[in-house]
């Protein structure tokens, strides 16, 4: 089965991990700080590493101070963790519709649902294409909310010359194997605001405080620490950070290859009837995580099944979040975000990863042409 996504591991990655295994540090050591610095160089903002993309969102909501009585506005066209991270802090999630063109959070839809209780507005950079953060930040500033960018798809992307880590107050990343770079499991939170990043760092470290000038009882001894707020152990170990730094050194090459493959899909599929291709807005330089086409005329299920039968691992990204039973049980109903639901009904992700050969891509295109032409 040709997968829709796959990691790219070379000898430099293997050597980095082996070197970490032979060091004195397997958990929190010097490679954590190095990887965080390497992320900052790409994301444009200081970063804190965590265990995965889901815990990155959890830590971001903790840093934003989300809690009971708050509202968080977000998109339904994402993995459930973008929303559920806020629910776990007792907040009410408000789903706003997406733009038809990009499947990103629609600022006009956000404007219609924000209230004085809105604590955070969380956008997703769908398929690697950054959301309209300038418009979203204006809305957030008006109601006193924090902006959060779920950039699980988008490390390496830029928006009008600015890297994704600088677009929102808090930005989260995922380093799952199918993403743009991998640490096996891993993630990060970036922020240009030192106060928010400090809260995320403390939360991912079980709430522990060791700085002498911040302790309530600083005279106990060198071993002493305090837990001043509740947190969780979301620390990414040195071993995986070694892999992450090695992968980041290859990120420019990853981006160039993903863009080449995207351009090739655009050319090969441009004249296929019954198919709508993804767009790229002016000023956006995306790291394409997905190549999401829209299969028209109600044929998405047929095309999905037949492509899989042909050994081509297409995927659907994503089920509208409020369709999941956990949200149905909270009273959310289908039909709330019609643009997102129309997108979901047609969306299909074609294989896209570093290492996808032209021959494999030709196979994908031929199979898709044959199905849609029959």
TrEMBL record:
Record's keyword annotation contains Ion transport: no
Pfam families referenced in this protein's UniProt entry, alphabetically: DegT_DnrJ_EryC1
Molecular functions per Gene Ontology: pyridoxal phosphate binding; transaminase activity
One record GO biological process: polysaccharide biosynthetic process
Residues at the catalytic site: 179 (proton acceptor)
Keyword list, A-Z: Pyridoxal phosphate
Top-rank taxon, per record: Bacteria
N6-(pyridoxal phosphate)lysine modification, residue list: 179
Entry cofactors: pyridoxal 5'-phosphate
Similarity-based family: Belongs to the DegT/DnrJ/EryC1 family.
Protein name as catalogued: UDP-4-amino-4, 6-dideoxy-N-acetyl-beta-L-altrosami ne transaminase
Native source organism of the sequence: Paractinoplanes ferrugineus
